[in-house]
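User:
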Amino acid sequence: MAEDRIVFAPDDVDLARSPLRRGIAEPTFVLGAFNPGLTRLANGNLLLMVRVAEALAEPIRDGQVRSIRWTPVGYRLDDFDAAGADVADPRFFVLSGGAYPFLGLTSLSWLLPVELDPEGQRIVAVHYDRAIEPDARHGEYGIEDPRIVRIGDRWWMTVCAVSGGRLCTVMYDSDNGLDWRSCGLVLDHGNKDMIPFEGTVGDRYLALTRPLSDAWFAMPPDDDDAGGPSINLATSPDMLHWRPVADFAIRPLKAAAASKLGGGTPPVRTARGWMLLYHGVEKQGAVGVYRTYRALLDADDPTRILEREESAPVLEAAPDLIAPFAHQAYLPQPVVFTTGIVDAGDSWLVASGEADLACRMTRIAKARLD
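Assistant: Predicted structure:
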């Protein structure tokens, strides 16, 4: 396999088999097929759980800006006054005049399982019959950014569910990595990156979290850490009931370019501890520049950060990779958003979303990361 390549892109999605066809007859297109969860199946093949962001070909019509919404009886379109909406960002629109800046999504995301060969070189199957879509009101505007781990003989997957009432985490489980069952909502505050560890510490499950807020308090002037979104830790006896850990946080550093941090891959156990790849965002333009960094946590006490390196990213955006379909790109700043990792012998296979557009697979030698 090439060291770094695109393995799945918008044109690889057959929208005739989209779950949205049950309610949306109007033309749609794939805004992005990206940010995939990654795991290895029992047969040795890889599974990408691809986030498909499906958008209306004509989002504004007759003075109305339109969005897609799941309901128990099928998908429907909602209309909002375009005169009161900021539509500068192709991913969402902002409604003015309310008590808060309310957002509307221009696409609805669902999850598509894509099976690859063991080295990630070839698509074996695209499982449209196992696609995962919203199934409750807390996901009425879509489910996003899956993360998958295998612990023992079970697979677990977290997704971010979006609705008008909450931004929350939903847990799924599976006994084969292909057929998934929703376990329902497990984290109820605004949280974009709840990511389980691929394994336990003693009898406890662990997960990274990244709470969101409209405002942050300043850190002390003599502290190296900056305020703002950071990576926290939670524990659980059963993967369903979670309690925050007070003594852990990977916070932005005042001296670093990244002003916002969030989880990336599930932490995996190595000979030296729990290794994780996470994202940092440098302020630039409307979106910011996303890069992937590495941290190492103590194997027996993951609240202890053994190593953290942000001067040299593990991954940066690679615009050349999407050159064949660059006309489909819509983000003004470079973005790589890393979401999955699997063991490949003397290397790691790392899955990322490239430019919020396509799925990227990178082979990285373990000697570089472990």
